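Hi everyone,

Forwarding the result from last night's run.
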Amino acid sequence: MRILLLNEYFPPDTSATAKMAAAVVDALAERHEVVVLCGRPSYDPSERHPFYFLRREKRGRVVVERVGSTTFPRHRMLRRVLNYLSYVTLAVPRALMIPADVVLAMTDPPFAGIVGAFVALLKRRPFVYNIRDLYPEMAISGEIVRPARWVRFWEKLHRWALARTSRVIVLGDDTRERIIAKGNDPGRVVVVRDGALLPETIPDQNHSVTHEIRSGYRFVVLHAGNLGFYGAWDTVVQAARMLNGEGVGFVFVGDGAARSQVEASANGCKAIRFLPFRPPNQVPYVLAAGDIHLLTIRRGLEGVVVPSKLYPILAAGRPVLVLAHAESDAARVVRRSGCGVVANPDDPVALLALLRELSQDPERLERMSGRAAAVANEFALHKGLKRFVQVMEDAA
C-alpha cells in the first residue's frame, strides 16, 4: 500500500504536529510505502532551506517531497496565511501526480482536511483525516477570525470534507463527539491518542534544572510547554495572586501565543515564575520538578483542542491538575484513572482552596503519582501508532 500524507509541517519543523507526523510516517513505513508532501521548513525549524520549487528526499521507504512554499515567521498571521496558501497552491498539482492508494491529511494548514478531501476525490482514493485541532472553531475561539459569511462557508466545506472521509482520526472522546454531532457516521470516527515514550527510569528532584525550577517554592504547580490561547489563564493568575507569600507557586516553562499576555496580567505576582524552553535532554528533569502539573483548557474549547502534553506527564509519574470542563477528554482520563484532580476553569477561589489542600497532603500526591505511572502504559506511544496503522489499513 502506498500512502500520501499532506501536511505543511514536517521535520526540521518543530511543531507538535510535525513531530507526530514523523512518528506516524515511521510507523506506517514499517509495512507500507509513504510519500510525504510538505512545505519548506517554516515553523521554528532547526534548519532553513534555500528556495526551490520542489525538493525530493529519500529515507528508507519514506519519500519526502517539499514544495517551495514561503517561509515567513509564523508569529505574524498575515504572513503565516501566505505560507499556507503558497503550500496549497504548489502541493495540490503535485499531489495529483503522485500515485497513492490512500490519502492522509492532518490539520496544517487549518484547511488541510478540505484540501485532502479534494485531492482524494480527484484521485478516486480513500481519504483519512487526522484532526489535530478542530477548525474553524479553533480560529474563532482564538479570535484569529471573527464569525462571518466566509467562516460559515469554511465550516460548510469542512463538513463536506468530513463526509468524504473513509476514517476520521481524532485525539480524544470529546472531539469525537463534536465530529459525530456534525452528522458523521460514528463508526468512521476513531480515537487514537498521541501517547508518549515511556522512560526507562524516572529522575528524582536532585538535579540543577529541577532545583532552578523549584527555587523559592515549597509546592510547585508546573506548566511545561506551549502557553496557547486556549488556557484558562485568568483563573490561574487570580488564584496565584491570592497565594502570594504561601510558598505555593506556578512555574511556566516554555513559550506560546499567550505568554506575553499572561506575563503582563501576572506582573508583580510572587507566586508565578516564567522560564524559557529547555533542550530535549533536560525535559525529564523539568517534568520531575512539579509537585503537580497544570493542564488547562478554557470552557467551551473541550474537543476543539486536546492537549497531548498529558501523556508525557503520566509517563514521568507526576500527578495532573486539569483546569477544564469536567467532560473534556483530559478530565475524563484523570477521573477514571485517579492520577490527578479536576477543577472548574472559571473558579479561581475553588482552585485556590484545592491547591492549599493538595500542598498539605503529600500522601494524596504520592497516590496520584503512583496511579499516573500505572496508567501511563495504556498511553504508550507505540500502542497509539499501532492503532493508527490499523485504522489506515482498514480505510484502504
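The longest strand covers residues 33-39.

Cheers,
N.
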